[in-house]
Description:
single chain, about 65% helix, about 0% strand, globular
Amino acid sequence: MGITEMLDELKSKARRDEKLRAELLETRKDAQPLSAFCRKCRELGYEIYDMDLITAGEEFYATMRRSTNGGGENSPMLEGEDDFYELFFAGLE
């Protein structure tokens, strides 16, 4: 299972389980929120690590840019589309 699928599954569970949702949101208060979030994911059985999460978003965005208008400079700039971490929490709040 890839990062996207793991995040989707985790988000779906958190939407149904208020305690889990609160635990995930609490990670945002940590001094290093991304690391705290990934640590919580691993505690829950999802092997998500900081750099894997960051690079997954960047790779997804790069693929999207290559697929539009031949991937040239005319490709649309989609702000935030490469940040799976922020997109995850946007879907929880």
